Each structure stands twice: as structure tokens, then as C-alpha cells.
What we know:
The structure holds two protein chains of two kinds.
Chain A: H1 23-32, H2 39-52, H3 57-70, H4 75-86, H5 103-121, H6 124-139, H7 145-159, H8 166-190, H9 192-208, E1 232-234, H10 235-248, E2 305-307, H11 321-336, H12 341-349, H13 383-395, H14 405-418, H15 420-437, H16 444-460, H17 481-496, H18 499-505, H19 508-511, H20 537-548, H21 553-569, H22 577-592, H23 597-606, H24 608-615, H25 628-641, H26 646-658, H27 664-672, H28 687-731, H29 736-742, H30 751-782, H31 794-797, H32 801-805, H33 812-830, H34 832-837, H35 839-847, H36 856-868
Antiparallel strand pairs in A: 1-2
Helix pairs in contact in A: 1-3, 2-4, 3-5, 3-6, 4-5, 4-6, 5-6, 6-8, 7-8, 7-9, 8-9, 8-10, 9-10, 10-11, 11-13, 12-14, 13-14, 13-15, 14-15, 14-16, 16-17, 17-18, 20-21, 20-22, 21-22, 22-25, 25-27, 26-28, 27-28, 27-30, 28-30, 30-33, 30-35, 33-36
Chain B: H1 23-32, E1 35-39, H2 47-54, E2 66-73, E3 80-88, H3 91-100, E4 105-106, E5 109-110, E6 112-116, H4 134-138, E7 142-143, E8 148-149, H5 159-167, H6 198-217
Antiparallel strand pairs in B: 1-3, 1-6, 2-3, 4-5, 7-8
Amino acid sequence: MSGYRGRGRRYRDDYREPVQETPEQRLRSTILKLGEVDPLQELHRVAKFIYDHPAGIPFVAECIRIGVTEQPHKIPYYAALLKILHEPPPPEIAPGFPEGVSLGRSLLEDFWKGFQGYLDQLAWREIRLCIQFFSHLTTANIVSAQSMISLLLSFTTVLDEFGVSQGRGKRAALCAVEGLLMAGQALKQHSATSVLDIINAVQTYVDTTTFLKSLAQPMVRFHALTEPIEGSIEILDCGLAAMKTLNAQDFANLSDIFPQPYLDGPEPVLPPFDLPSVLVPPEVVEMDTLGESSSEVKREEWPEYHLTLFDNDVVPDPMTPAGYALKSTLLDIIDIYDVNRKECARILLEFAKWTPAGTFRPKPNPPPGIEIPDPVPGKDWQLENTVVDNILGSMFALPDSRQRSMFYIALITELCKLSPPTVGPAVGKSIRKLYSFLGDGLDVEIGHRFADWFSVHMSNFNFQWVWKEWIPDLQLSSQNPRRGFMRKAVEFEIRLAYYDRIGRTLPEDFQNPQAQILPDKAPGPDYEYDDPVHPYHDPAQSILGLLRGRSEVADVVSALESLRNSLAESNHGAANLDSILRSIAIQSLLHTGSRSFSHFLNAVERYLPLLRNLAAGGISSSGGIPNLEARMDILTASAQFWKRNRQMVGIVFDKLMQYQIVDPTDVVSWAFGSGHGNGEGPLKVDYCQWDLLKAALDKANGRVMIAKKRVIALRKEEDENRARANADGAGNGASMEVDTDAKPDDHVESPALTTAVKAFNSLTREQKSVLSCTLDGFAACLVPLPSEPNKNDFAREVIQENVWHNRINWGTGEWGAWETWGWYRHFCGSYSAYLRTYSTTLGTVSLTRIEGSTDPAAVLVKKIWNAAIGVEET
Amino acid sequence: MAHVVQPLDQPSNYKDSQARVDRHRQEEALSRSSTLYIGNLSFYTTEEQIYELFNKCANVSEGGGIKRVIMGLDRNTKTPCGFCFVEYYTRAEALASLRYISGTKLDERIVRCDLDAGYKEGRQFGRGKSGGQVRDEHREDYDPGRGGWGAQAQKSEAERRREVEERYADTTGIVAGGGGDWRQGEVPNQSLKRGRSPEDDGERERAARSRLDVEDRM
């Protein structure tokens, strides 16, 4: 933007009106900025500032609460601040402060009200961070150990609730774990049995969730889905291990793990504060009356696995107390600052100063006058790698990442921009490590997200990657996940840039068509009838001409009809004339709109009636009956036209669904039918088909969501109107008679509501049908019927242990079947909330055929399904 | 978080100087908008590239997705002039783009996103004197992605450029809607022999859609 001296303010994002700070704002920012320069030195200054600026207890307590819940790295220092405020202030800090009054105590009382608020809303992260704060205060002897133990026990009580959801259980367990980690010493001195009770409660809970791990592990062994596999860790497992380790050491040396600035200074003279007792409120189940899917579809929660990308001498081992504490805080920072990735990156790169000295390797070339401390044995980790490790851990969590992947991708980009020489290598190492997991069991969805991240990241950094180190892998089978990754990465890069640009970044070996990495020409349309020798060249040209000339729909339809008649007479030996006509019409229409996405939309909108007519079988001999075959033909013709541009296939299918030319169920049927290799070869699902399946599933689910919101809004509106009418009626002293007369009207729905409910019901049916069609499709691929002509015999093979160990010799068939299993597992995990809603129907409709079968493939399909719907097999 | 740092998903201070509604109405429209203005694009960046990047903030399972992309064109030459509008179905997606895409690269340029009060006819054209964007009138540097020297005659470059320059030559100024909400009984099996004119139908569709859109945002 250099040189631009515009008159508008448009290009100045950072422009903000200068504002005069009020004393309250100054106080707030002083409290929130605690420690930005030197936390220890600032503590007394901030305390004095608070004494000097009386702003009321609630205000100061709120500032501290914001500090605690939005800056988890500062919690020990807020605890230290509170300790200072808790004790009688020395006269130089607060001259004339009344004796016997504890400001800290009043603040704590008010802080507690906020905590109770978080509890009422079940704001789990805030709850957990407040618990950390109380734990530090327990160690500082400001909060009584007995009341802290009671608090933690009310969270382990949650774990015993009947039918506790995984999300609630996991979060409650983490509250107990982290509370114990930070206050363990004081708590154990008070009651060693209580400490053991907490540990045992968490252990028991973890044991009951083992079967869920089969859907969440990032590395997959289909022959042993729930067994732990090297290369990943689970967060709650880590917390539990850390807690046990610390307990075995009687929680000695906690200050190696996190700072304990509150231990400086004298023991408190005032008696400790007793935290009131709490009850963790039950989860609210939304009660509306929309039938089966009444509760808001929440993503199901699973054990959270993170891949291990670095060795433990580079990043801390999260199974150790220090490693767990660092991981937990970093993950919280990453989560909290998703609203501003730039600030998030800055805070992460400054994280070392909030950890005990020697935790992270200091930056080389410190400013003059500052000495580099000696490394602490067993620590001296690398901050950037640790940060990247945690970001990627969150990004690759299964079945869904904590936040959308784009946040993590953008955050890593910011980190690289802030400190290229240190973050860049960490990113490069992560990419190599992830790549090495491919073909070794790395989950297919993670592989997909990896390619996505890779391409966006490279797009931000000039597409510079050292491709040549992967040249030897070009010898692998073409469906090997590593080759699949390279192909996908190049495809995604081209979409973000353009063909020639990406071609230039690849070594010659990759450009060789035999490598099957770079396509032989740029992605583009492929009008089948372009070739003058094509038997349908001339008729297609005539239709194309009409569409280009924007002829009326009726004219195009009659042209297609007369074309059918003439083709039927002439002997082209056409097996399916209807399909050919549809293909000509669709491909010609797409041709007129092939210049850009907008051109495509314009073409479609101009000829919507034609498309509807075609979808309804309008030009066919069957004439006008909604027609599955016609809709399949439309999808096939579209995929044919854009066969050299998979992105456009996705776009066209999406809009065909949006304009209601085809239904999501059609797309699913197509993806399992014609969608793979023209319906030939063994049934399987690869990432291209998965993308289409996902688009269809999401579209169906999204529509239900919109319809439901509309019904709820209309109901609410009607309730309000009714209430207002009743109030008016009561207000003008209406007689009893009128009231009784008015009653029946109360239950008459408005036409808008009736329509909305009807739409909701239709869409719910469609949603169910999409899910069941997908489940059927997977079952047909994985447990094929003996009569299935395209049955995939590899599906049964690749899930056997001995076959897996021989994967070095796998070919296209084996990898194709393995990938299909992977997408099935992901489908079950990612859509489990929906599958659970309809589990009875779906199970009956789609899985009856394999019920009771001892076929290992059938058993595995069932096992994964059961984990998805939350049923533990006995 | 919001108390400690400034969220990135706030609209900027830009006000559409040519909007025919008052500032208050503009602000209200902004507060409900699911449309983004995207600036600092290369003249050669295609809608599909834009779609690819912005689709990463789409959330179809919550009823979202990319509704349409409207490429900004030079008023006179009808060639892309470095900006566009991306319209999502939901506002949350537009906000996600502000958080995660604005300030990152597309086609090797750092793109800038801003909430926009919503596309109005004619806004796809540049407002600079020469037909392009105002900012390119004032630019004094050489920017190969934006036609070289500011507002100057452009030298012919690669094939990419020719394709781009021809692409929108056929623009009629009519912008597609992108498809509205699902409606009951949308798949008709009526014969088209009687035939309404497709334009009429398109108009009706559009009118119906904008009504739905209004409902959407209530």
C-alpha cells in the first residue's frame, strides 16, 4: 500500500478515535495488564493502585475475574495479588486503611459470585480457570484446604451421575484434575484420603470411556481400535498421569511446574476463606416439541487425542506434571484468543516469561546486560515447537477440531510472520513428521486437514516447500496415503493459485505425468461434444446455440424433444437416449456458464425451469414423473463436464442442491453409485467422494437447522402475541364470556407457522434419508453382499492384523478399502449427534442385514456404529 | 478475548459515501450483514480462487455456505479491478472470515476484508475516474498484480491476463442470487410447453428470494 495517500479512511484498519480514559478504565487496564513488564515487581504497585483508586469491590473483583478467565498464564500472579490485598496493608501502601478489614476477602466473596454465575451457565473453561485460581490461593493459605477439597469433590460427583455425557464428564474431570495439581500439597497435608478419592474417581471415569477412544484416536489400527497406539496422547489421560505422579511425590516442588509468587512474603495472618459449597447444575435439555430431534444438535464430545509431533527433549512430555500444566495453559490461551489471532500469536511467543525460569530455552542473543541462565536439566524445551505442537494438536483433534481449522491455520501464519527463524523450522518439522505418519495409520480426515493446512500455509509463504525430499515416495503405490497427500496438496495449491504457478514450484519428477501428482493440463471444463467427430457434436451444438442465444425455455425443451425423435430414428445405437439428451442439455448449459462461478450461477438462474424440467424427467419418454434416473444423469453430466476440476464439481453439486434441482440424498446415492470411476471397479469411498458426501450431509443438516430456527421463532412470536392479546383482554376488563370464547383461538396456528412446521417435517425426513443412504452405502462397500457385482474383497482383508503388517506391499485395492474404512469411522464420529437422534431407525433400516453376522467386517462396522451412538459392546 | 484484546471481527470505519440511505440505516444493515467486501485483490485472481479460500470459513451444517461472489469490474473495460464481494448465507461465516482470512494472502497478495452493508445493483463497478478503483487512481507504485503503474495503460502480459480480460466482457450487470432457502414443493413437474419467459421467472425468483432474505435477517 506504499505511496497511497487516499482521502478515505478505508485502508486504515487500525484507526480508532482517541478516547479519554476514565479512572475506572485506567484501573481496569492496570489490573488486566498486570505483569506485562515484570510481574513480581508490579504486584505491589498494582495493589497500591487498587487501594488508591476506590472503585467499588464488584468492579475490582470483576476485573480480576476477567484477568483470571481471559489470561490463564497470569493466574498465579492474580493469586499473589489477591494475597497482598487479603492481608492488612502496610501504611505506605494504603495509609489510613481501616484495621481489621480485608479488601482481599471482600474481593474473594464477590469473585465467588462470578464463579457461581459461570457455574450456572456451565461455562466450563471459566469454571476450570477459576478453580485454578482458588487452588493457588489454597496453596497460599488464603482459601481453606477443606473447602477446596469439597469444591473438587463436587466435580468428581458429576462423574458418578447416571448417563453423564462425555462432554460434561470430561470437563468436570479436568476441573478436578487441575484443581488438585495446583493445590495438591496443601490438600494432601489436609486429607490424603480425599486426594486419593479424587484420583480414583477420575480413573474410574476414564476407564468407562475406553470404548469411545475407537473413534477418536488419530492413528488407526482397524484390528485393534481401542488399544493405545504410540504417537498420540489423550488430554485427560495426561492429566490423570500427571496427578498420579505428583501424588507419588507428595506434590513436592510444585514451583518447578508453575510459578508460585504467592509463596513470597509472610504467612497470612488472617484466617483462610471458606469457599461456599456448590452443586454442579445439570445440563439443560432444551425442551421444545419438534419431535425426535428436539434437543439442539450439539457435537458429541470424545476423548481428545493429540498427535505427538516432537521428541520429549524438544517439547515437554504432556504425561508429566510440568508438561500437562504447560499444555493446559497453552490450549486455553489458543482457545480464548480466537477473536484476535495476531494478539494470540504475540501472547504465545511471550509465554516463556510466565513459566518458571529454565522451562524454555532462552532466545539466543539476549539484550545486553541480561544473562542467559543455565539450562534446567530435563527442561530447556523449545517454545515455538511446543506452541506449534499444541496448535496442531487442537487442529487435528477427532472427529472435529476444537475450533474451525482456519483459525489454527491463520494463527500459525501469524506466528511465522512474527518470528520466521524460530517458528518456520518448527512448522517444517511438523509437516515432515505428519507426512511420516501417512501410510502408517494416520486417520484419513487428519490427512485431509493436513493437506488443507499445507496448501493454505504454502499459499501464504510463496509456495516454497522442499518437494524434492519426497521424490523417493513417488515409487509407492498410487493410492498410498503419501502419494495421495502429495496429489491433494498440489491440487489444493492450484485452487488457491493457478496451474503454472504451482507447476513451477515442483521438481521435474513431480511434473512427470507418470508421477500422477501434477495433472497434465490446467483444470478446466471438458465439453464432451466439442470434438467435431463426436457422434452428437452437431445436435449438441444446436442446443448450445439456443442456450447461448438465451432462447426461451420452451424452445429449448421442444428442441430437445425433436432431437430425441430424430435420434431415435437415426441409428446411433444409443442405449439410453434420455441420458444422452440430458447430458447434452446439462453440459451445454454448464458450457455457457463455464467462465466463472458467477457465470455458472447466471446460467443456472436463467434456465432454472429447464433444469427443473430435466430433473423431473420432462424430456424423457416416461414424461414428467420425478425421476431418480434423471437426477443421477444431471449429476453425472456435471461431473463429466468438470472432470478436470474437482472444485467445480463440488460447487455445481452444491448449487444444484441449493436450487433444489437435486436433493442431498441424490448426491449421496450418486457418490456411492456412479460417483466412483463411472460405477466400475470395487466399491469404495475416497476423499473426492467423501467431500461430496459431506457436502450433502451438511446441506441436509443445515436445512433442518434453519427450518427449526424458523419454527421456534414463529412459535415464540405467536406466544408473545397471544400473551399480549390476553394481557390486553384482561386490561380492558373483558368479561369472563369473552375469555372463554377466545380460548379455542389460542391453539390455531398461523399459516406461516403451519408452513414452517411442514417444511421442518419434510426436511427432517430428508435428513434421515441422507443419513441412512450414507450408512447403506458404507455398509455396501465394507460388508458387500456376495451378489454385489462390484464388491470390494479387500474390505474384509485390510482390517486383519497380519494383512496390515504387510502394508508395505499394498496396492491400489488395499489402500482404497482402507481409506473407505477410514471415512466410515469418520462419518460415524463426526455425525454421531445426528446418528444418535435416529439410531433406532437407522440401525434397523441399514444394519439389520449384518446383525448377528460373525463376518469380521460386519462385526467391525457394528462396533464402530455402536461407539458412535454411545453403546458400549459387552 | 474481548476484554483483553480487540476482536478482529469488527467492521471498519468505512462508510459507503454513495449509499442512498442514512448512516444509521447503513450501520443497522452492517450489523446484520453476511456480505464481505474484499480488497487488494490481484486483477487476475479468479472467483474460483476466492471461493476456495472463503469456503474454508463456510459452515454448511449450520445452514451456511457461499451464496455468491460478485467480482468488482472496471466500469469502462469490464475487467476485474481488484475487489469483490463475497456473500455468505450466515453472518457468522462473514465474521469468521474477518477473524481468520482478512490480512492473509490470496494469490500472493494480502487481502483485506470488511463487512459490507450488502450488494446493491451497480456496486460491482469501480468508482475511480478511469473506471477502476479509487485507490488505483492515487497509487504511485508499480504493482504488477494491479495493472502496473496506477491507472495507466496496461501492458499485455501472460495468457492469464487475456483470459481474465475477456471473461467478463459479456456482463449484463444482472447479478445472480446464488439460491435461496429451501422451499416446499420446489420441484415441479409442470410442462413447459406453455412456457413463461425465463426472464420473468428469474425476476419472480429473485423477488421471492429477497423477501425470504428479509425474513432471514429478522
